[in-house]
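Thread: Modeling a multi-component assembly for a lab meeting

Hi all, long-time lurker, first post. My supervisor asked me to bring a structural picture of a complex we are working on to next week's group meeting, and I have zero experience with this. I have the sequence lines for every component (455 residues in total). Could someone generate the structure of the whole assembly? Inputs are pasted exactly as I received them:
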Amino acid sequence: MVTPTESADLKESNLKGNIPDGLTPDLLRYWEVLDQVPDPEIPAISVVDLGIVTRLTVGDGGVVQVVLTPTFAGCPALKWMEKTVREALLEAGAPEVEVQTTFENPWTSDRISEVGREKIRNFGLAPPPRRRPGCVGPDLEALAHAACPRCGSENTSMKSPFGPTLCRSLHYCFDCLEAFEQFKPL
Amino acid sequence: MPTMSNSQPFPSGPLARYLLQIADDQLIMGHRNSEWTGLGPILEEDIAFSSVAQDQVGHALAFYEYLQAECGADHPDQTAFNRPENQMLCNGLVEQPIGDYAFSLVRHWCYDHAVRLRYESLSGIPNQTLQSIAVKLRGEVKYHTFHADTWMKSLLEGSEESRLRMLAAIKEVWPLALGMFESWVGEEDWLVELAGNGQGWYPGEAALRLQWQEQALRSLQTWGVDVEKLGLEKMEPVLGGRQGYHTVHLAPLLEEMTAVFRLDPQAEW
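Re: Modeling a multi-component assembly
Sure thing. I ran the full set together rather than chain by chain. Output:
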C-alpha cells in the first residue's frame, strides 16, 4: 500500500521541479510566479511542473517573453493558460508580457517534473509512465498495466484510451475493484 | 453574410497546398466525428469519438496556423470557415455522414492509418517547424489507430452479427478510402522537384496508397476477412475532393459548421 504524500511534505522533499537552475533573481521570480499558475484541468499541478513552459526571457524594457507548448494540439485549455500566464506575470510587476505558443519543443509527458508526477498521483490520477528507450511516440503497451494511483497494483486493465479530458485514459484496478484515470503518456 | 478576405484563398506552392489538404481532411473528419458526442453506443465510445474529433480539429488548427505564419494564408478561422465548397480540398471519405457505428468505426480505422502514414512521412521533412508539428501530432494519432485497431479486431472476431455488419461497412468505405490518395494538381511537378533536391520524405499519393493498402489488407486478413471475396482489390477510388469537386454531403456540413461563424465573420473568439 502506497501512502499518498501530503502536499506539505512535497515542499520539503528533494523531488525536482521544472524551474531551471542558475537563473538571475529576476528570472527566478518570474518562474516562481508561473509555478503558482495551475493547470485548469488538473489544478493540483502548475503549468511549470506540467512542462508546457519551454522558454522565459526578459527582453528590452523588461518585456517578459514566454513560450508555451501544448500538451495535446487540440487542448481547449490552451487559450486560458495563455491568459492566466499573462495575467500572473503582469500582476507580479512585469511591465509587458508576450505569450507565444509553438510546437518548437514538442511536449511529451516526460517533461512533467518529479514534483508534478507526485502531485498528479495525489490528485488521484496515475502519472504517465516514462517512455522506454527506443519507443517512438506514446508507450501504449505500458498502459495495459498502469499502476493504480490508490494501491500501486499493476493488476489493472485499460478500459479506454480516451477519458474525460484529452490527456487522460480510463482504467480498472482488479485489487481495489475501482476505476481510475491515468495521465496519458505522449 | 461572408466577407471578402484580403489574402489568397489558396496559399501558393505545392507544400502549402499539400498541408491545406491535410488540414481540410482533419477539420471535416473532426466535425463528423463530433457528431457522435452524446450518441455513442456506450459511454466510452462516445468519449472516444469526441476526443478523436477534438484532436483532429486541433491538428487542422496546427496546419492552418502554420499556413498563416509561413505561407501567407488568412487567419485560421477564415481559412477554416470562410471558403466556398469548391475551394475546400478534403476527400470524399471524411464528408460522409456518420452512418451507423460500424461505418464510422471502419472510416476511423482507414482514415487514421492514412494520417499516420502522412505524419510519418512529414516527420522526415527538412523543415524544423513542420518536423516538430509532425512528430507531435504523430504521437496523438497513435492513440487513434490503437483505438480503431482494438474495435476492428473485437467486432470482426466477435459475433456473427458484428462480423457481417463490419464486412458491409468495409465494402462501403473502401472506394471512398482509396479516394484519400487522389493525385492533386502540382503533385507530379513537386515530386520531380523534391527528387532533384534529394528530398525523399514525400513519396507521392500513389506510393502512399500502396503502402496504406498493403498494411490495411494485411490487418484485415489477420482478423479473418476474406479480402478477395469482398472484392476490395478490384475497387475503384471515389475521386474529386482534391480538385474541389465534392460529394453531396459536404455542402450541408459546411452550412451547419459555419452557421455561427457567418453571423459575425470578424468576431474575436
